[in-house]
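Job type: complex structure
Entries:
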Amino acid sequence: MNRDLVFGACGAIVAAGYYGLAVSIPRSALADAVGPQGLPTVYAFVLLLLSLILIVRALRTSQQESKTAFHFGRVAGMLAMGVAYLLIVPWLGYVATLAGLILATTWYQTRVMTKTTVVVAVAGAMVFWLVFVVLLGIPQPPGIWAQRF
Amino acid sequence: MSTALLLTLLPAAFGGVMWGILGGSLPGLSPSITMALLLPFTYGMDPTPAIVMLAATYVGAEYGGSIPAILIRTPGTNAAAATVVDGYAMKLQGRAGEALGISLYSGLVGGLFGLGVVVLLAQPLSTVALAFTPPAYFALGVLGLTVIASLARESLVKGLMAGAFGLMVSTVGTDPVTGLSRFTFGSPELLSGIPPILVMIGLFAIGELLAQSARSGVHVEIPERPRIRFPGPAMWRRIALPQMIGSVIGTFEGMIPGGGGAVSSFLAYNEARRWSRRKEEFGHGSPEGIAAPEAANNTVACTALVPILSLGIPSSNSSAVLLGGFLLHGLAPGPMLFVSHSDVVTGLFIGLLAANIAMVIVGYVMMSPCMWLVSRPRPYLMAFIYALVVSGVYSIETSLFHVGLALGFGLVGYALRYFEVPLLPMVLGVVLGFMVESNYRRSLVLSGGDHMAFLQDPVSAGLLIAAALVLLASAVHHARAARQRRAAGVPA
């Protein structure tokens, strides 16, 4: 499917959803003439108009192959690892979860698990902990270990 | 400025240049991504060294990009693409060390030239600072948004849509006039809005990481380990003219929205060839073919500061991230910066001078680590960048919610790349949205709802006319380009 058509459709959906949220902002007695809904409503209309222009233009022109190929599965996997990090780090703690993230990302790209991969992941996580927590003094999630020890 | 602060600028400049050279030397990490990765680290620093470190990263990255361009025929940054032509040819002739020396020396010349221009232009611009009223700030925001039109090179509609997305993101949080919460979905973390830094890290760093994950890994071996050889007096004379050409082109391209290092490098290369007495050497290992683009892209790294410092408007992705650095430290770039934080501006100039000099020393020392880094397997590099991003974003406000937001914007950044939509318009919308809305509404409150207030204020009127002219020029440009495409039989 033509990418411009899809992007235009996505834009129109976002515009409609955003407009729905904008008009549901409660009215305030303190509001100025424009109000908190004023400019958001304008932005929604502008985006909707631009989306429609893009859709019409995409329908009128022939379908074009994009210059770049993208693999959604790999991208979704990478993103899932970030989300997994977010869910696990509060209880497993920074160092262990980060080592897991480095290990998983490397494995995901190579599909090969060696001793080197594990050592690099653990050592890398330790280096990050040293830099952020020890050297810069920036706290990272300690996890359940902080309560146990 | 205190001596203590001055002493903090030096390590900031050296550290920034070091990080920039490392990042720039890695193909796939643009200067903007390298800067975005550094942003969270600067959070705990004082504003002046933090801004200096970010600006120094930009300077270092522009040189760093030439290392793989010369050694492995792969530009580390877009701006280094023009250096590949003659740099790699010199490497094949066994002159890699000489090529790297010319690149470093020309970068220094371009950087110092650009810094001189910024210092000269900044002072006059600071004098208009006090003339800015709420209508003028609104008009400034509108002028900034019209820049989108010139940034959206291929599709004006898609660029404007990205700008609209950015404006929408800027409305999340507490309403600037009534204090009502908007688009927060009951989340207290969203009450203060979405910090632009999260949008930038998401769009630039995570978005690029996701896009690169779809490509196969590349393992590069560098058999040769050259030593940098700085040019002697005879070579200085030979490359003086191309350096000057590069510096002048870089000055204008740095200040023009959408110009940037890549465009200036190719323009400088082309002009240097046109004015050279040894045209036939270009493409076959001409030192002039390295000097011109390298001087140009390092000039851009400095002159890109002019629109940020004077108007608060970024002209490229890298300067948008630098703007994010200002905002992260509670500094509002623009006319008032010279009045309210003149020490930061002075510190930035001193820091940039130090950064350009540091580039020569650090560039020489960092040669071996850069070559080691470039030859690392890409999967490891990606894993460490991912770890750096999640750790860095969490550090800003020790918030996992922010990490989640950055990941979300990473997905948006990936989607925008997929649909071939420019990223900078969205960043502009996020950065300028609050300024436009708050000053528009404040102006109307002060004028009793009279829209003529925007035309009665001379600064506001001037800026609005400038915005209209920018839009008109862009419309003409896009119409002409569409006509040329139609004439060539290419669909619009």
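Summary: DSSP finds six helices and no strands in chain A. The radius of gyration of chain A is 24 Å.
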